[in-house]
Structures are given as C-alpha cells and as structure tokens.
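Incident log entry.

Two folding requests arrived from the same account within the same minute. Monitoring flagged them as a possible duplicate submission, but the sequences differ. Recording both here for audit purposes.

Request one:
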Amino acid sequence: MRRKLTLRHPLILQLISQTLPRLRRRGQRVGCLEWAGYCKPGGYPIVQFALKRYRLPDLVWILRHPDPMPFNHVVSHTCGNRKCIERTHLVLRPAWEVARERMRRRPVGQKGFVGLRGEANRRAVLTNEQVLYMRRRCEEGASIRQMSKELGIAYSHAWYIVKRQHWTCI
C-alpha cells in the first residue's frame, strides 16, 4: 500500500525550506514561478525527501488542497510551462484528458516520436552527410553490413536508414 503525502506530513516544512532558494526570479515568463533545481528529462521539476522523489507540481497541489488527489488524475499547467510551480497555474485533470491534449499538439502526420529530428536531436549518432553517403553507396551496390561496421552502428539501424524508414527527414 502506497503512503500518501498529506499536509500533515512531518517533512513538509523541510520541503518548503529546500524549495524556496531554487526558484528562478529573473528572466522567467510573466506570471510563472519557475523551478531552477533538478528536472526530469521530460522537464518536470523533481524534489527528493524522505528517501522518495516527488513531482514538485504535485506537492504544491497537495499543500494547497489537503484532501487526497482522486485516482487517475494528474496535476497539469494552464500556462504550458513545465517548470512552473505557481499555484494558480496548476489544475487537476483526468490523465486521459492530458494524454489527448498531448496527441493534439503533435505535428500533423507524425505518428511516433515527437521532438527534434536528424542532427538536431542531441542523441543522434550520425550526421546528415553520413546518412546521404550510406544511401548513395547502397544505390551503387555496397553492402549494408559493411557500411554499418564502418560507421559503428547496428545492421538493423543501417538497413532502416537505407530503406528510408529511419532518418525520413532527409
């Protein structure tokens, strides 16, 4: 059974004292109170205490509303700024509604990954020139397996690139 964090939790004062110094004041969006501490890769602020990690917007919501959060509901932002913890910008919404909104924000025709494509993605191993080189060499009759070894990538990834299923942006 999970233990719910409530306003009566003994470590709430410790949390407040931890979070106040980490708020960004200069250069922030108008009306937003941005978190300057640790954030998850998705951009949501995280704070750890009592050997457990919590999303900061959830904790702000709990401090404002002492009753427990309904099942399958999440705290979302009206301002769209994930780092914002201004209590007036936080609303409690069903999880399915938040997921539907994310799908609507996806570019038209895009199915899976939503983010930067090609070289702009910080996790990209190849460059645009290498991808074009692979495709050109394959048309000339070169082996996909040999090219994958040259570039240090998996054979399956090289095959998807040559067949234009990966790196479709170029």
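Request two (distinct sequence, not a duplicate):
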Amino acid sequence: MVWKPHVTVAAVIERDNRFLIVEEETPHGLQFNQPAGHFEENEDLVTAIQREVYEETAWQFEPEHIISVQLWRRKPEYPTFVRICFSGHCHNHNPNQQLDDGIIATHWLTREEIAASQHRLRSPLVLISVDEYLSGQRYPLSLLKSFLDLDHE
C-alpha cells in the first residue's frame, strides 16, 4: 500500500471580529471547524477553497492570503493531512443554497467563543489558524503555482 497524505484546504474568514465557523456532524458528534475540505482532481488550490466555502456556508469567498501550510496527524494510526489555510473575505451570500451533507449550521464566533469551545473543535488547527491570522501571519497567493494539463511532448 502506498502512503500518501490527504490534501485539504481551509479558510479563516473574519468579519467584525468574528470568524465564520461551520457546525458539522462527525463520528465524534457535532463539532466546529473552519470551512474546509478535500482538494479534488482537476482543481487548483484557490478553486478548491472557493468551492468548499460555498458548499459549506453558501458564501462566495475571495482568498487574499495564505496563512500557513499545516502538517497534522492526530495519532500514528490516523491519516496525515497537509492543510493549506487561506484568509480572505466573503461576499454574495445565497440563503437558498443547500449546505453540504453533514453541515448543520454556520456561525460567526469571536476568538474567545472559539477558544471556549475547544472541546468541540474538529481539530486543534481551528484555533491555531485563527491565532495565526490574528498574529498577522500572511503569505501571498503567488506562492501557489498550478501546472495542470500541461502538454509533455
């Protein structure tokens, strides 16, 4: 069997000192997470995070920066994740858009409310990413290079 990490994307979205959080069904009960999900075939990373935010929150997302690239594994027997965390702004909310399966609700929470809910966070990366954002950590999107469907003759 070939080992490979799961590639995921996540978004830290702040508005009026509150962060957009999804409440989702997981094998461990209802938990909080940033809008996030798996990178899919034939997508670039920016398209992936825009799609995930829309599917999970019904907001159109414009990424502006990369906050961090995170490598995470809960335990040795669990999968390993490479998570690219973006920041940016939302616009054009579609209240008629059905949210992704498993998403119960979206919330705008303060950093303190997120920290007070640590027992319900999907992973420690949720609060770590908010804190990285609040510390001013930002990297340009130009770090990302996509070379899809190149002709290799």
